[in-house]
Write a structure and sequence with these properties.
Order of helices and strands: EHEEEEHEEEE
Structural class: alpha+beta
Number of helices: 2
Distance between the termini: 31 Å
Shape: globular
Radius of gyration: 14 Å
CATH superfamily: HesB-like domain
CATH class: Mainly Beta
CATH architecture: Sandwich
Strand order of the largest sheet: 4-5-2-3-9-8
CATH topology: Hypothetical Protein Aq_1857, Chain: A
Number of strands: 9
Number of domains: 1
Strand content: 35-45%
Largest sheet: 6 strands, mixed
Helix content: 10-25%
Length: about 120
């Protein structure tokens, strides 16, 4: 699948997704009974956390009209314009280690993170 935006919005910088993250997200989408040809993972930024901003993820049935849609390893990723300015250039990965398991955003725009790694500042 293409790593270029699939639909609306001209992206100057990509959002990348590792193969492991895509595989995990697709399995979860299918468990929810969602059509992976249309539905996808929404990656967004919200106010909160001790550093000021935090990442959010959820499954959506389809992208919003103003979303940029990326497709990596058959996973569709939806990013709204407000979130894009904070997370452009990021890589979504899935970590499976002794201390933590789950999705992780490697964001080149972050200037500081809180001690627990749940929130950040750009």
């Amino acid at each position: 699948m293409s790593t270029e935006p699939a639909t609306s919005g001209e992206a100057t910088t990509r959002i990348e997704v590792t193969e492991e993250a895509a595989s995990q997200a697709l399995a979860l989408l299918e468990d929810e009974g969602l059509d992976t040809d249309i539905a996808g993972l929404r990656l967004f930024v919200q106010q909160g956390g001790c550093a000021g901003l935090s990442y959010g993820m959820r499954f959506d049935d389809e992208p919003d009209e103003d979303d940029t849609v990326y497709e990596h390893h058959a996973l569709r990723v939806f990013v709204d314009p407000a979130s894009m300015k904070y997370i452009e250039g990021s890589v979504l990965d899935y970590e499976d280690g002794l201390q933590a398991e789950g999705f992780h955003v490697d964001n080149p725009n972050v200037v500081s993170e809180c001690g627990c790694g749940e929130s950040f500042r750009t």
